[in-house]
Protein: 4-hydroxythreonine-4-phosphate dehydrogenase
Organism: Acidimangrovimonas pyrenivorans
Amino acid sequence: MSSPLPLALSCGDPSGIGPEIAVKAWDALRARLPFVWIGDPRHLPRGTAHREIGDPAEAAHVAASALPVLPLSFAAPARPGDPDPANAAGVIEAIATAVRLVQAGKARAVCTAPIHKKALKDGAGFAYPGHTEYLAALAGVERVVMMLACSELRVVPVTIHIALREVPQALDARLLRDTIRITHQALIDDFGLAAPRLAIAGLNPHAGEGGAMGREEIELITPVLDELRAEGLAIAGPLPADTMFHAQAREGYDAAICMYHDQALIPIKTIDFAGGVNVTLGLPFIRTSPDHGTAYDIAGTGVADPASLIAALKMADEMARMRG
């Protein structure tokens, strides 16, 4: 059996598939990987075997027969597919509660179910682009990194949720340098790689083709990579992104660092759409999440696939064990 300390799973948007896949994940894992679900029990699917607990330490004993629930009172019931702004504050509090538990040593890691940023902004004035930035604020960390991971690929976008036209202006030497260093250290600390190998994508087609298709590789990316190579990091690049992700290329590195969101996420979602995991690197605690959204279109129908959440819980468990 796993450690008596559970994982802490925040409920996400109760109008999405979060409650449903949490129950399916519990049913698949039970006492083999206990977690405590943080949310309003009214939002769980009808007939869910669950038990409210007051101390996360109870989860290891409860999980064999019921979903352990640390109850929060939300303002309104959940309507599948129809987010209620009244519940936004509860969704945010569930995330904060999960972080408090792990900071207090009552949980080993945080796992978060999907949220809908606009719903949180409309209902509670949520001021963050997403989970990643909010978790950084809760932890008091200036810079964190988003990694998407599956068994065959790990990718990191340097810029995340911004318009494509803004990417060249957002890229700078400090951001790129910090992203690479944080990724390198996390591969050592959380994934057990003694000497991580990193592949860095160029920004432009053909990695700029010697300046014919853009000069960011020459003027920005290469100088940063040379600096980090001098520090001893194993780095390849800048590489043409269109040749980095076939099977043979993937054998040559442990993580690919890409310049913008879709450059990183299209390959991993093509390779393993159901099993990808979102990992936040650079936090003082472990955080994972399924690599999908709220799926309002199928919420409440019972067909949602829990594979990504199960993978996220398992990865959080593995990372926690790696950190000791």
Notes: Residues 173-189 form the longest helix (17 residues).
